[in-house]
Protein 1
Amino acid sequence: MNPFDLSGKLALVTGATRGIGLGVARAMAEAGAGIILVGRDQGYLERSAGELRQVTDSVHTACFDLLETGKISPWFEQLCAKIRSPDILVNSAGINRRGEAINLTLDDWNEVIAINTTAVFEISRSFARARIAEGKGGRIINIASLMTAAARSGISPYIASKGAIGQLTKAFAVEWAKHGILVNAIAPGYIDTDLNKSLIADPAFDQWVKGRCPLGRWGTPADIAGPAVFLASSAADFVTGQVIYVDGGWLATF
């Protein structure tokens, strides 16, 4: 018996067209899960779905802009009616706005908080409502950040949003444990994704990351995918309310 087998499960993954979201979706598909890919660009969604259909036939796409936070609940209800309620929710969608706090606009702040925190709150409770109504448990996996526990200059909205995700994960875990809904977060360190391309292209920053990280490299989406499969599987039946740092040892040193 394989405790990491996700056969028969359906996972909804936001931010699933690239980077961490796509990596997690691919790993869950390889573990046997059906996948609902959520993104705001239909073209990217179809490309990603094509990749995953080499692994499984059970791939659905749902084009939706999570910035429209007030529309998440009815959209999610319609999605469940069309397909079914997912067993697993992976909140991977995220954005960043870089700049000193005194120079950022309020719109910058509001957009980051809307996507990175408010959308997670709204889609998670939509998921929970559906599972509770059906009398079923479930798994929620939030993608937090190294910035859930640390900070650096120039990304204050992002830091605030990911700090909130750490606490929201614990709040949901406590509130929904009685319904069999387990809620955890994975906090990646510096990962080689499109979100970080400008940082990777900066030789000084690239060397700083590699020198600061005990494992001496940037992480990859595959480094996050394994822990995500674990948290979604029966191997993690007694794990909830945790923020697991997958950072190459970053927080263990100074």
Protein 2
Amino acid sequence: MRILMIAPEPFFEPRGTPFSEYHRIRALLDLGHTVDLVTYPFGADVQLPGLRIFRAARPPFVSHVKIGPSAAKLFLDLTLTATALNRARLGRYDAVHSHEEAAAIGVVISAALGVPHLYDMHSSLPQQLENFAFSRSAILRWIFQRLERTAIKRSRVTIVICPHLEETARRVVPDARTVLIENAPGSGEAPVHGSGKAIRAGLALDAASPVVVYTGTFEPYQGLDLLFEAAALVRRERPDVRFVLAGGKPEQVARAKAQAVSMGAEGLIFTGELPADSIPSYLDAADVLVSPRSTGTNTPLKIYQYLRSGRAIVATRLLTHTQVLSDEVAILAEPTPEGFARGILRAVNDPAHAKRVGSAAKTLAETRYTYEAYLQRTREACAALVA
């Protein structure tokens, strides 16, 4: 198929949805399809055989776009719509594939072209308003609910990235045709054994010190406040434990450092944003990997890469994690500072247990969350699209 894809994100940037979009495109190309991607004017160009990128015009005074809903996205989506309509007029396409709110554009274009539409549902649009504390407006929430319902109803196939989203889609439209494709490949590569030695040396970490690593964005929903409070408790009992946080834009890191100090979490190491290909070495340097997320229901992208690392994972015992993680492959902790601290201390104080859950996690990744499984699910979505 020749696919017109519409992605309302900066492509490519090393963050959640763009990672997912990249691997979705990669799988489609591996299956023999071609993709014309219409996206925002920001991000690095990606060279893949069969992919062409068409960037929307940059509105005046918009120099970047943050994660989640924003006023800037309203203007960017207008130029994105214009570019997508122009591509639909000039190209000959067999299907339209839209990500997130771009489905509002995609369902109209697919109807005009008389071709099927595929909705890539990375999150629930109304829930985004809560996760990012964007607005409490009942009217805006109603608009997002209507948009989500229309996107699912008018799409021949809806791809969902976690079981809870599949339940959400079918609750909104009971007869929706959904295909669950979890974002395992999009999370990044597994670490190379021994690559973490250089990281430890560069950060002046003692070889005997237990190292707890967090990777990811510094957005509010990630639960870093919980991690800081737990870190303060952990270091009271085990002052030799070191915490490394890999991620965050400069202004976010500055705020996080001040917040950590105010909570009594001294001695944390903040690396700032890192290239995606350096993250596996940080995972190899870790004894424990943490995901303190306390809101939302989507599975964090980092979890799949954590699983592949073979390290002990400490995560909050919430749906966002328990869709993938269990007590057999992780240390699930209550989403309180005391509970999360106990989870970290269990991993640090009981290396044998940490090794067992880490090994089980790696086995799970190698048997269930493989690229071959991802490719097969993508093949099923394409088959359903043209059925």
